[in-house]
Design goal:
The complex is a heterodimer of chains A (215) and B (194). Chain A is mainly α. In chain A, 45% of the residues lie in helices and 2% in strands. About 10% of the residues of chain B have low confidence. Classes of the chains: A mainly alpha (215), B mainly alpha (194).
Chain lengths: 215, 194
Amino acid sequence: MENINQYPDAILNLLKNKDFASLTKNEKTEVEAFLDEELYAKLRETYSQIQSSERDFVNQIKVRSQTQNALLQALEGRKKATVWDGIVQYKVPFWQAAAAVLLVFSSFLLMGKNNKADSPAMATITDTIKVVKQEVEKVLVYDTVRFIEKPSKTKAKKSPAIILVKNKQRYHSNLPNNSDNLSVLSLKNRKQIQRSGYSLSDDSLVNKFNFVTIN
Amino acid sequence: MFPFRKKLENRTDEELMQLICDADEQAFTTLYMRYSQKMLRFIYRLLRSDEEKAQDMLQDLFMKIVEHPERYDQSLKFSPWIYKVAGNMCFNEIRNTKNRLRLVETEFTADELIQKHENIFTGIDAKNFSIEYNRHFNKLEEEQQLLLTLRFQQELQIKEIAEIMNIAEGTVKSRIFYLLKKFSVLLHEFNPAK
């Protein structure tokens, strides 16, 4: 059995189907190029028995009916998954996605514009806050000081303690409001208070300009 | 139904697979009817006559087609592709279990031995031939088992076998002849011609 690789496929088919005696002249010529009659017979017999054994071996076995049902159920499941996957995994072109986003935003804007006046929920509430300013007028306070000369029991000094000023009005805008606290001290009183220094009565300026001192 | 649509029975296996990618139930049923029985026998033979396991594996095989039809190699025809996948699944299963070792070490019972010796003189008993053949078959390498199953059980042509096993046609022929010669010597005493 040299150069088996070169055996034509036909020889294997002949071994399967025909014994040596049944071969045609041409077939015999072809077979005898590779095998003698004895070897052909041996191989043919073995071939036939192996084939018979193989067929008998599996003849009794049949496919279970449940197998097909299970497979069809699985296919049905995949069909549903395929449809859903197709929806989820669908790739939208960028320009379509951008156009959809713009459309949604513009629709929101338009809706907002149209419904502004009608919708009570969108009414604006205006609160007015009035601020009352209190203007403070600057009021000039006039204080009239009158001096009343009282006759004194003691001998009047030559230089009166109090210099009489008639109808002389003097005002001070910066005076504190508590003008009640104004007190006019006589020179006499001041002398008592003043411990040291010159007496006002002795002051030349006081004598000269008729100053009224107030404490 | 679209009047000019080609009948599913007339469609090729590859066209049916295209429809199965779209979860076409009728296309799947057609393909299943074509290959289920054939593949069950193929798997059963390679799994050393374990029927339960063979049935489960058949379901697993077609479940792969249902769940992942995109994995079908469109550069190959469907028939060689499904045989390749089924063969790989079977041999992976055998390697993962200890069945091969158990089967290789299987010896005949006493009754079988007596019957075996009696048949040397009386001619072949087909059952004994099958038993002996099966015993030798289980000792073969995976490629040789695949080759014998594809040629003698599935009755495929040399070209198809070469495509499934991814070997040259000449290699397929030489290996078949080698196995035939080996078994003719091993099983000579069981030869019915004698």
